[in-house]
Amino acid sequence: MRAPSLTLEGQTALVTGGSKGLGAAITRMLADAGAKVIAVAREQAALDALCKQHERIEGWTADVRDPAFHAALADRDLDILVNNAGTNRPMPMADVPADVLDEMLQLNVRSSYLVAQAAVRSMLRRGQPGSIVHISSQMGHVGSPGRTVYCMTKHAIEGLTKAMAVELAPHGIRVNAVAPTFVETPMTGPMLADPAFRAFVGQMLPMGRLATPEDVAAAVLYLASPLAAMITGTSLLVDGGWTAQ
């Protein structure tokens, strides 16, 4: 038998939140592996800049909360979905206003579910195997002060991953999660700018460094590739040992 490889030649992938940070790194790595990659984001300028970096990257300006996007996605031929769009608004639980709670549930849970549902409809329509990778977090496995809402939403994604995997395995659709530790991105930059918080993060990471976007993208590529053909329903922690303690 020929050994499976990381190549994604001939496959079409879609990455939500794909124009910057983790999403941009994932988009580039999947394109380098041979996939045609559709990067979805709301900011046209950022998408245009990303598309110029690789001939196999296509930009799709859309809001992942928009029902019209969900309908259009279900009509696209898709082999791989990377469900990456999300947000965080850290604050003490007693101070979380209802609108922040609703915003994070809407984007991190409801939209993630509906985007995954649309991708599943695409894959079932085609009758072809597929791979879905949810971008979760180490906070989907543990708790942390000031992150009650974020932890709740990421624990939800971990549960969704397992349930989807069980239901969709008979159709050849694999569903997994990647759970990163802190990565310096536009979303986490303001948090990590606080010296005390950055020191706390450093103390919690046995590997002694933050993850890079490429560390996370490599895990996504592995789970999306033929090398992970027997892997479904799991969460790959890219956390430098944070949750091992």
From TrEMBL:
It comes from the Bacteria. Coiled coil: none annotated. Keywords: NADP. The keyword NADP applies. GO terms for molecular function: carbonyl reductase (NADPH) activity; L-xylulose reductase (NADPH) activity. One of its GO terms (biological process) is xylulose metabolic process. InterPro entries: L-xylulose/Carbonyl_redctase, NAD(P)-bd_dom_sf, Sc_DH/Rdtase_CS, SDR_fam. PANTHER family: D-ERYTHRULOSE REDUCTASE, D-ERYTHRULOSE REDUCTASE-RELATED. Homotetramer. Belongs to the short-chain dehydrogenases/reductases (SDR) family. This is SDR family oxidoreductase. It comes from Sandaracinobacter neustonicus.
